[in-house]
Amino acid sequence: MVNLPFSFILRFHSGASMPAFAGIWLAIVTISVNVVRADTAASAPSGFFRSSGVNDVLASQAEPLIRQTSEIDDPLASPPLPSPAEATASFEYPALEEQFTATPDFPNEQPDFASRVIGSCEPCCSPTHEVMPVGLLYRSYIAAPHEPRMSSTLLYDTSAHESRWDSTLGGRIGLYRRNNPDNMNLDAWQIDVEGAVMVRLDPGEQMDLESSDYRFGLLWTGRRDNISYKAGYFHISSHVGDEYQIKNPLFQRINFVRESLIVGTAIQMTPEVRTYIEAAYAVAYHGGAKPFQVQYGAEYVRVPCRPGSKTPFVAANFQHRQEVDFEAGINLMTGYQWTGPNTGRTMRIGLQYFNGPTNQYQFIGRYDNQLGFGIWVDY
Q: Could you tell me if 362 and 240 are in contact, meaning their C-beta atoms sit under 8 angstroms apart?
């Protein structure tokens, strides 16, 4: 509706004749009625003004005004809202990388973890550098008695007719790996750290601790195709158990210690067969130890039909130590093995047979002839 100021009407009335004023006033009322009808027609349903001839006339007069009014932009009007279907189709969630790398909305918000950790150490996290890598380039020997691993084996000595329970608590992990190193004919090389304690319990004497051998080492390992290499240092020392010493007061303990440099190589002959040889030379030794020792062996592990399934294995290890005049110690093992498809770690259960100078260095003059059953876990 059009609203004219009342002062304008009074001024117009004072300067015009009564008939002229009445005609003009009637024209104003007519226009106001038409505008009101037009506003109502714009908001009413289609066909509402088609009920009478008068309404048809008013609607036809209002249509040009409606079109003119709709073309005027209102700066305060909100933009038209899209339909739910259009809104859903046009909306896109931000990518995961954008969510982590977006600028914080608040000044006190912490920077994203990815930019602080990965972005700040990109050189050491590149594909050629790995800190704490998964797996080993030089796997532990399956049948070697003094390899750092997790194991427990119940043995029966067929010569002495006594039972022994041997367990190992330890392992070997990688600290740093370099892939495709420059100026080296290797696929990769790696630094490993190893450590273990190898204990022997006596089930016939209330599980008394007879002895424990401690091993610690730092190794460099490398691999090229199917050949692996190893070089490094390891310490080993042997200690008698308190319970055994109390029950055998005449036993003379020895301070068996060896600080050795070690080199070795292993060849994966086929996907199922591996052979190896290793030599160690002690630069310092005490308590009856001698500097030189060597071990070698072979392993067969069938390729699993599917990842993580069990497969049979057979392994043999032969070791010669100078302190026992290089008399051979033979260790044979067979059973089933499970291999982690992502980590390469292995778990085995099976039978073990050992014949030769004892592997517990505190009893350097003892000879073992043992048969038993155990479980072994390698990293």
A: yes
Cβ(275)–Cβ(142) under 8 Å? Answer: no
d(CA 166, CA 331): 14
State the Cα–Cα distance between residues 300 and 379, nearest whole angstrom. 18
Give the CA distances from residue 196 to residues 4, 38, 192, 234, 246, in Å, rounded to whole numbers and listed in that order.
102, 95, 14, 11, 25
Query: What is the number of other CB atoms lying within 10 angstroms of the CB of residue 69?
Result: 13
Report the DSSP pairing between strands 367-378 and 150-157.
antiparallel
Number of H helices, E strands in the chain: 7, 13
Which pTM was predicted?
0.67
**Cβ atoms of residues 267 and 141 within 8 Å:** no
Q: Average pLDDT by consecutive 10-residue portion of the chain (379 residues)? A: 43 44 49 48 45 47 51 52 54 45 40 38 63 93 96 95 95 95 92 97 93 97 96 96 92 94 97 97 95 98 91 98 96 96 92 96 93 95
